[in-house]
Design brief:
alpha+beta; Nuclear Transport Factor 2, Chain: A; Penicillin-binding protein 2a (Domain 2); five-stranded mixed beta sheet; 21 helices
Length: 641
């Protein structure tokens, strides 16, 4: 029965107050066109679930529509929209209707959702409403060859800066050099990889294997080079001519130079599977994170909070992305720059001072006495990029006699108190002696300041019964050494372990036994002496002040230590530093290893103006020749006061 016939067959008569309905044969006068609302709501429910089997379509089938929706949603994982019918436009006399659907995607924990409205045309066919199919039913302007994808949108990583705001770790232009396998393949790609490896000075066998394992259209990175890298200048033309080689410009977070404070600042790279797993869904594959150093410790602060972007993505047959349109974006939150105390001129001078010693690990640390700020913390080429400067654990040798002196002062000694300096001294069967060139005219009962100036081992060890190991440990803490503090960077403030062994206790007086320190430790010790109170090191400006020791350094005690350390520069082993204005100093050597005679670590600590310095050389005959040259070079170049 046609719609017109139905209309004409509807007759209503009022008989004695009752409504009497009559109808032509075979037709119910109650029959009327179905409302399009139910179909629109079924469509909304299907879009929300990804199953459109309950909806009739014009232009496609429920099976095909469902397949399209599921493919479109694949890139968003388990996320699905909330879809509701917000408006229906329909004239009862018309076979056409327009439904307005409102969609809401809760794509993140933020209060901002991706919302949109879509208008859907419906047509009445044989008493059933059909939805006119277009991909735009799923999302506005979505094309038939597009799918949805949600990607994190990270802000630019914040910089690590110095106190003046100058950028230390920041995005810098680099060239990523590698093999483009879309231009070479098979044996040709392997040969190109080996040639490129030779030009980049990397392992050719390993790189060729990496290229061989990559996909047929992959770009396989060989090396990332700064724009100023000498290798580019030397081999850039040859790389450009090599078939299959490709140089891609990029931005990468780097320090001022390859070595500049590298162990401290750290590096930035792609998150590992372990980091992703530990992040509790904060990180995803491809995210950039700090890998070590301050970049690692302050990664969350520096990387900020990602926003999200919804894209309509067009892919090729091989799955590669051919085109991408942004449909919605949630703003990211910028990271906060990290301010550090490193001084660019001082750090550069420190690294230059150590540059010539390539055989053995070396380090130099400079601390501003008044504030505890670490101005320079450098390692030499022989240290292999280790954290030796701030976190090394080495025997401090005779530089520890500064601590031993404080322990003696607390037992009543002054700079002029006489101590017995003998050629040798035996403690519980262990024979101790002075260094081989110790001056004979400085033997006998000598003042404490002379014992420090000429570094008489036996004079200090002779006091092992008067000063306990606990006394030494307490004196060390008063000078900023030996406490396990929660430093806001990778650092070590030394250790003076407790011991019941008499020989070990005796060795502690001269910075051996199990006593350990880093160059940072000894720079802090000198800074505390110079300031007259315990100095705490500061590297990261945003961190709070470290707690004071249980027994702080007293200014009167410190004055005695300063008198002793002046004597070192005036007449003792530190006279080499006098011409450049160094006022306080102490040398040190510490035996290590199994050689006979054993090798020795060489130390020199010094103070000038508001600067305290510690220099270390893993192998040196003495502090004067093995470590003092580093300090001389550093102070001349940095001109720190």
């Amino acid at each position: 029965m046609s719609r017109g016939t139905r209309r004409r067959s509807f007759v209503a008569l009022s008989v004695t107050g009752a409504l009497v309905i009559t109808a032509t044969a075979g037709c119910s006068l109650f029959s009327s066109p179905p409302a399009p609302d139910d179909t629109a709501r079924a469509l909304a429910a299907g879009l929300a679930s990804g199953d459109l089997g309950a909806v009739e379509f014009k232009g496609t089938t429920p099976v095909k529509a469902t397949a399209f929706v599921r493919a479109a949603y694949k890139g968003v994982g388990d996320l699905r929209p909330q879809v509701s019918l917000s408006e229906m436009s329909h004239n009862e006399d018309s076979d056409h209707a327009t439904a307005t659907l409102f969609s809401r995607w809760d794509i993140s924990d933020s209060p901002t959702d991706w919302t949109y409205e879509t208008q859907v045309n419906l047509t009445l066919v044989d008493d059933r409403w059909q939805v006119s199919w277009t991909p735009g039913v799923v999302a506005p302007q979505l094309a038939a060859d597009e799918t949805l994808d949600i990607a994190r949108k990270w802000p630019r990583r914040a910089d690590i800066v110095d106190a003046s705001g100058a950028k230390l770790m920041t995005e810098r232009e680099v060239s990523v050099v590698g093999i483009d396998k879309s231009t070479v393949s098979g044996p040709e790609a392997a040969a190109a990889a080996r040639k490129l490896a030779a030009l980049l000075d990397i392992d050719p066998t390993r790189y060729a294997a990496k290229v061989a394992a990559a996909g047929p259209r992959a770009f396989v990175e060989g090396l990332t080079l700064r724009q100023t890298d000498p290798l580019l200048e030397r081999n850039g033309a040859a790389i450009e001519k090599l078939t299959g080689a490709l140089t891609v410009p990029a931005l990468k977070v780097l320090g001022p130079t390859r070595t500049w404070a590298a162990p401290i600042l750290g590096t930035v790279g792609e998150a590992t599977a372990e980091q992703i797993a530990a992040s509790k869904d904060t990180l995803e594959a491809g995210d950039t994170v700090g890998k070590n150093g301050l970049e690692y410790r302050y990664d969350a602060q520096l990387r900020g909070t990602p926003g999200l972007a919804v894209h309509a993505v067009k892919k090729g047959a091989d799955g590669s992305v051919l085109d991408k349109r942004e449909l919605f974006a949630e703003a990211s939150v910028e990271g906060k720059p990290l301010v550090v105390s490193l001084d660019q001129k001082a750090q550069t001078a420190a690294e230059a001072a150590l540059a010539r010693e390539t055989k053995h690990p070396t380090a130099l640390v400079a601390v501003r006495v008044s504030t505890g700020e670490v101005l320079a913390a450098a390692v030499g080429p022989g240290a292999g990029g280790s954290t030796l400067a701030l976190a090394g654990k080495e025997a401090p040798g005779s530089t520890f006699k500064i601590v031993s002196s404080l322990a003696l002062v607390r037992k009543g000694a002054t700079a002029d108190t006489k101590l017995p300096c003998t050629k040798t001294l035996t403690v519980n069967g262990r024979r101790f002696s002075n260094y081989t060139t110790y001056p004979a005219d400085r033997l006998g009962d000598i003042p404490l300041k002379t014992a420090l100036a000429f570094s008489c081992n036996t004079a200090f060890i002779s006091q092992h019964e008067k000063v306990s190991q606990a006394d030494l440990a307490q004196a060390a803490q008063s000078l900023g050494m030996g406490e396990k503090l929660d430093l806001p960077f990778t650092g070590f403030l030394g250790s003076v372990p407790a011991t019941d062994d008499v020989v070990e206790h005796a060795a502690s007086f001269i910075g051996q036994g199990r006593v350990e320190a880093s160059p940072l430790t000894m720079a802090v010790v000198v800074a505390s002496v110079m300031k007259g109170q315990t100095v705490r090191p500061t590297l990261v400006a945003s961190e709070g002040t470290l707690p004071s020791p249980a027994t702080p350094l007293d200014p009167t005690e410190a004055s005695v230590l300063r008198a002793e350390m002046r004597e070192v520069v005036k007449v003792g082993s530190g006279t080499v530093l006098a011409p450049i204005g160094v006022e306080f100093a102490k040398t040190g050597t510490a035996e290590f290893g199994t050689k006979n005679p054993p090798d020795t670590h060489a130390w020199m600590v010094a103070g000038r103006g508001d600067i305290a310095i510690a220099a270390y050389n893993e192998v040196g005959e003495n502090g004067v020749t093995g470590a003092a040259p580093f300090i001389l070079s550093f102070l001349k170049a940095s001109n720190l006061r």
